[in-house]
Amino acid sequence: xxxxxxxxxxxxxxxxxxxxxxxGDVYNPALGQVTGKVDFATVExxxxxxxxxxxxxxxxRNASLAxxxxxxxxxxxxxxxxxxxxxxxxxxEHGKVLSDALGEVTRGLEVVEFACGIPHLLKGxxxxxxxxxxxxxxxxxxxxxxxxxxxxxxxxMVPMWFFPIAIAAGNSVIIKPSEKDPSAINLIxxxxxxxxxxxxxxxxxxxxxxxxxxxxxxxxxxxISFVGxxxxxxxxxxxxxxxxxxxxxxxxxxxxMLVLPDADLDLAADAAVNAGFGSAGERCMAISALVAVExxxxxxxxxxxxxMSGLKTGDGTAGSDMGPLVTAVHRDKVASYVxxxxxxxxxxxxxxxxxxxxGAAEGFWLGPTLFDQVTPEMSIYQEEIFGPVLSVIRVNSYxxxxxxxxxxxxxxxxxxxxxxxxxxRKFQNEVLVGMVxxxxxxxxxTAYYSFGGWKNSLFGDTHAHGTEGVHFxxxxxxxxxxWLDPSxxxxxxxxxxxR
Length: 499
Ligand code: NAD
Hints:
The chain is of the alpha/beta class. The chain folds into 2 domains: 270 residues, 3-Layer(aba) Sandwich (Aldehyde Dehydrogenase, Chain A, domain 1); 184 residues, Aldehyde Dehydrogenase, Chain A, domain 2. Helices cover 37% and strands 23% of the residues. Helix 2 crosses helix 7 and helix 3 packs antiparallel against helix 7. The longest helix has 18 residues. The model has no long low-confidence stretch (mean pLDDT 97). The site of nicotinamide-adenine-dinucleotide has 27 residues, from helix 8.
């Protein structure tokens, strides 16, 4: 066995040389082995990073839009030409299959491309002669130092929902990635340096709660963009806003797929399997609850089970459909939900415990699992499982299905499968969920729209990327201007009125 590699902070354009007081283990989940040791930041290190990022931002905010877009275009080219390297790092530490890892980098790349248009996105408006000889115009300015705290399941894409726009808008960034798969973001930091971004504008600090808590309270941090589980998202939102920061905190999910009786059941079965088990169900937009409107449930379940029997679970580099779960602890937690489902009376149609795999025996495996006869009060329905477990809930009408979805605590994504345009249109209007797919199971919005859920899936007012992202990473200023004219003289203590 080779020695675990050291994974350390990237601050001010260079890797941190000093040794860490605390480190965390990083696994290759397909091997079940520790392959890296990631340094954990102390409060003092966070303070140093904020000071550096703050200094760098003072200059970067004055870089012309032409200069900023030059750097962004260069970054885009490097990222595009070296995306396979990022994907390999993701597969090695997260476990998702290589094509899936590449897909996530490509989706992140789209946000970089969107941010390349920052000169257009930052344009304000101008009203000549709003009052006599007075012009009014609006501008948008950067916030300062923006913190990003990201989850394990998309180590490249989720950070890229935020940092391209933050940097393009003239901010500097400190990112605290998940300690479970920290390598991809370090390579991205190297790409920024190669693209000509000034040192200190993009910084990576690794760590855990100690680093996050310091970011939440540090007066030099202007904003927090968080993505992770709902309890932590709530904590981040409450503490970040208490300390005067702008916060967007995206949380967990339970995404429903409503299948109406007129749907094409083969397409619906394909979609349920792809969206339920892709990335081993470790996606915030995974379908985990399939709501079948009778009388189609039996036929649909049969088609899904048949497709599941062909899925290959194994090492993400070896041509499998689905990789391992991220850690042994997480695998055991997901497996305990399968136990709970059986205990609570759901019908286990396909059991993923003890799967046949193409990989090392020590890997963190769990095969695709399918439950039928799931009812709304069961824990496997109420809670986010975040693994390859699909639950079928049978209902008797569209209305019953809609009510179920709208009652759930989460409102991240949802999908309807039907051939009835009127029903689909009614659903998009009535469903209390932030992202809706119509015959599209994973409706992740493209970069120029904004990503975000409702209810317990997002705390804050602003969704990620698109124009909402530009608004989040800038603040508005309105200027009212008059150039000297002798007729402006005279005393008048009244409130200014437009004349
Ligand atoms: P997590 O909440 O455990 O961790 C997210 C981040 O918070 C990590 O950087 C972690 O180091 C940090 N963190 C963990 N515990 C903390 C604590 N007590 N105090 C301060 N910081 C803490 O989430 P995860 O397991 O890495 O990711 C999976 C979760 O993320 C799922 O719930 C999933 O639905 C959610 N997610 C949501 C979206 C979305 O867009 N809504 C996208 C991706 C993932």
